[in-house]
Design a protein that fits this description.
InterPro entries: BPD_transp_1_N, MetI-like, MetI-like_sf
CATH topology of one domain: MetI-like fold
Protein name: Nickel ABC transporter permease subunit NikB
Subcellular location: Cell membrane
Family: Belongs to the binding-protein-dependent transport system permease family. OppBC subfamily.
Strand content: under 5%
Distance between the termini: 12 Å
Number of strands: 0
Keywords: Cell membrane, Membrane, Transmembrane, Transmembrane helix, Transport
CATH architecture of one domain: Orthogonal Bundle
Length: about 325
């Protein structure tokens, strides 16, 4: 291949990825609009009056005049479609209102809590990937033998245990009885251990079983038999011919795993007094803090969509079949 053809080949390899990213990013505004409308309607269909909640959280007696004043200030005296239109116009200017609890801008409050949650989810995701691959490889390398049965039993137990119950159990054992790890708070690396494990155990169990099944399936394919006939050792066959193909379903499942970890973080943050958006959101749900809940839903939707997009781009980069499906037929019958 000539030197001039190399940049063209590189561009053609990246072009499907840019096209995939462009299509997904173009759909984000529509998705956010649908999510915001659904959340807005659901919040206003619930019981109670946001004006009364605002007065209660502000420590003001809910007289008729105070309720009427607050309803006018919050725009609650307008028809529902006008309320949503006003909220949407302000949201487009990054003004999501002020929290009923703190009286501060909602977006600033959530961005203040977001890093702690993202760090926790990132650590839990790394733990999930490492132990999913480790347990899946152990089970898939010895199908229907003792290591496989042990891993499958552990995975079944991990799927059956609620993460909040596991969190309390780990605090009891490792913090109160053994005094090895801090029971709560946000600080050094030791504070990440218990909440990250509590969040990731169920996802590890699911992914390990998925990888085990994928390994057994790939190990029976023709190219693996040819590698065995060529005299390759079992470890070499695993590294070069089995694991790269078996990891692709796990990579796809990682996108869903991010959503599971984010959802699990909201519960675990309250158990470990973790200063993240999940703990702040739960407090907002108890106090019916509408502006916080609206902004929180959109922010978590955006994080989840971008995380899944990143996983899909990595998958498309690794697997040429995904790139070809994304690219479609080459123009003019051009061959790669």
């Amino acid at each position: 291949m000539s030197e001039a053809a190399s940049p063209a080949l590189t561009r053609r390899r990246f072009e499907p990825l840019w096209r995939l990213a462009g299509r997904r990013l173009a759909l984000i505004p529509l998705l956010m609009l649908i999510v915001s409308l659904a959340m807005f309607v659901l919040l206003h269909l619930g019981r109670g009056d946001p004006a009364l909640d605002y007065l209660r959280l502000s420590g003001i007696a809910p007289s008729e005049q105070a309720v009427a004043t607050v309803r006018h200030q919050l725009g609650l005296d307008l028809p529902l479609w006008q309320q949503y239109g006003q909220w949407l116009w302000n949201a487009l200017h990054l003004d999501f209102g002020t929290s009923y609890i703190t009286g501060r801008p909602v977006l600033l409050e959530l961005l203040n809590y977001l890093p702690a949650t993202l760090w926790l989810v990132a650590v839990a995701f790394c733990v999930t990937v490492v132990f999913s691959v480790l347990l899946g490889v152990i089970a898939g390398s010895y199908p229907e033998r003792l290591p496989d049965h042990l891993v499958r039993a552990v995975a079944f137990l991990g799927v059956s245990l609620p993460n909040f119950w596991l969190a309390f159990l780990m605090v009891l054992v490792f913090s109160i009885w053994l005094k090895w790890l801090p029971p709560m708070g946000y600080g050094g690396p030791s504070h990440f251990v218990l909440p990250a494990i509590a969040i990731s155990v169920m996802t590890i169990s699911i992914n390990a079983r998925l990888l085990r099944t994928s390994l057994v399936e790939v190990a029976g394919q023709r190219h693996v038999h040819y590698a065995r006939l060529r005299g390759l050792s079992p470890s070499r066959r695993l590294r070069a011919h089995i694991l790269p193909h078996a990891l692709l379903p796990l990579l796809t499942a990682s996108g869903m795993a991010i959503g599971e970890l984010i959802g699990g973080a909201f519960v675990i943050e309250n158990i470990f007094a973790w200063p993240g958006v999940g703990r702040f959101a739960v407090e907002a749900i108890h106090n019916r803090d509408f502006p916080v809940l609206m902004c929180f839903t959109l922010l978590m939707t955006l994080v989840y969509v971008l995380a899944n997009l990143s996983v899909d781009l990595v998958h498309a980069w690794i697997d040429p079949r995904v790139r070809r499906r994304t690219q479609g037929p080459a123009p003019g019958g051009e061959h790669a």
